[in-house]
Structures are given as structure tokens and as C-alpha cells.
Design goal:
This protein is mainly alpha-helical. 63% of the residues lie in helices and 8% in strands. It folds into 2 domains: 78 residues, no CATH class; 127 residues, no CATH class.
């Protein structure tokens, strides 16, 4: 086995610098966050800036205004009381019977209420939700809406209210989940952070190759090299 000092030195230098940068990435150098936390926050902010669908959802559910429903859903005990509270606050009739909840009222009004509450939490208007539902954590209110919307799917389809089921799912995925998941995150548009976004993506590619080339040069320097095997004739 023959050693190649130049390649060995280059491989060691690449690997040492790789792990030095890795160490720095796990230190809180970015406003008290490490690099992974800072990048996670950046991409969450960019995602939030492109997930504001509330106006479009509102326009989609307008056609259900005045549509009366009478549907029974299964609901977990821990969200039963909050669910009844938010439904009755928004003009719906909610009746519990064991582990089921019967909902009656204006379907469009209910969907608009869920969409509006999700938008309030998305926009960090926590005080408005606290005033609307006294004594209830705003995220618990959204969690109750999530359970209601999720459980509406099968009962509505059973009643052959397919379009209503689609509308409930739209509010679930484009409003409630977005409002809940992005609460507390500042929305940022891609064009406003384009530079750091490009840098992050380029750095990720280069840093991944950095380690690979370090290993390659290290083993080449130590005399280990991959060679094609000789072709054997049948």
C-alpha cells in the first residue's frame, strides 16, 4: 500500500474543517439559535408566507350559506366540551349523547366561523380568540375545530352530502391546520429572503459534497483506490 501525502493532507483538511463547521452549526450563533434551528425557523416562515388561503376558502364555502345540516359525529371526550362551546358560540345547536355530538344549523356559517378562527390564530390575534371564547386556550379552540371538521367527513358522505364533505375537508386542510401549525411564526415572502434562501440551498449541497470528497481524498491518500474489476469471459 503506497501513501500519497498531498491527497492525504487534503482529505484530513477537508474532514477537520467539516467537523469544525459542524460544531459551529450546533452552537447558538444565530440570535440564540443554532444553525439547524435558524434554518428551520427560516423555512417555516417562508412556508407560512405562502400558505394564506383563508380568503379563497371563504369564497369556496360561501355557496353553503343558509344550508341547514343535521349530522352526528363521534368525538373524543377531551374535546367534547370545547367543541360544544365553539359551536354554540357560533350559532349552531350542539347536543351531546355519550361519545357522539349532533350538530344542527347553518353549515356555511359554521365553516366560515372555523375559517375565521383559524385566520385569527394565523395572524397572531390571540386576544380576539380569547375574547370570543373566554377561558379557553386559542389553540384548544382550533384543535376542537380540527376534530369537528375531521369527523364530519364520513357522516356527511353517508347522508350523500358529498360537496359538504369536500368543503369541510377544505376548511380542515387549508384553514384549520394552517392556522394551528403556523401559530407563533412570522410570515416571510420568498422574495424578501431570496439571498439567504439561495445561500442555504447552495451551502447544503456543497457541505454534503465536502464530507464525501474528504473521505475520498483520505482513502486515496492512504493508498486505497477503487478499480474496475477485470472482465471475465464466459
Amino acid at each position: 500500500m503506497s501513501m500519497h501525502k498531498k491527497e492525504l493532507g487534503l482529505g484530513i483538511a477537508l474532514l477537520v474543517s467539516f467537523f469544525v463547521i459542524l460544531f459551529l452549526m450546533f452552537t447558538p450563533l444565530f440570535d440564540g439559535k443554532n444553525a439547524l434551528e435558524a434554518s428551520d425557523h427560516l423555512f417555516n416562515s417562508l412556508s407560512k408566507g405562502s400558505t394564506n388561503f383563508f380568503d379563497r376558502v371563504s369564497a369556496e364555502v360561501d355557496k353553503f350559506d343558509g344550508k341547514q345540516v343535521d349530522v352526528t359525529i363521534d368525538l373524543k371526550d377531551k374535546v367534547m366540551a370545547p367543541a360544544i362551546a365553539i359551536l354554540t358560540t357560533n350559532g349552531m345547536e350542539a347536543t351531546q349523547n355519550g361519545g357522539t355530538l349532533t350538530i344542527k344549523g347553518d353549515f356555511g356559517k359554521m365553516l366560515h366561523a372555523a375559517n375565521a378562527d383559524a385566520q385569527l390564530l394565523y395572524n397572531e390575534k390571540v386576544a380576539d380568540l380569547e375574547a370570543k371564547y373566554p377561558g379557553m386556550n386559542p389553540k384548544l379552540a382550533l384543535y376542537a375545530w380540527w376534530n369537528i371538521a375531521k369527523e364530519l367527513d364520513i357522516p356527511l358522505k353517508t347522508l350523500r352530502l358529498v360537496e359538504e364533505a369536500k368543503a369541510a375537508n377544505l376548511v380542515l386542510t387549508r384553514s384549520i391546520e394552517v392556522g394551528y401549525n403556523f401559530a407563533g411564526i412570522e410570515p416571510v415572502k420568498v422574495k424578501d429572503r431570496l439571498g439567504i434562501l439561495i445561500f442555504s440551498l447552495v451551502f447544503y449541497v456543497i457541505y454534503t459534497m465536502w464530507f464525501g470528497y474528504g473521505i475520498l481524498y483520505l482513502f486515496n491518500g492512504l493508498g486505497f483506490a477503487m478499480k474496475a474489476g477485470k472482465k471475465k469471459e464466459a
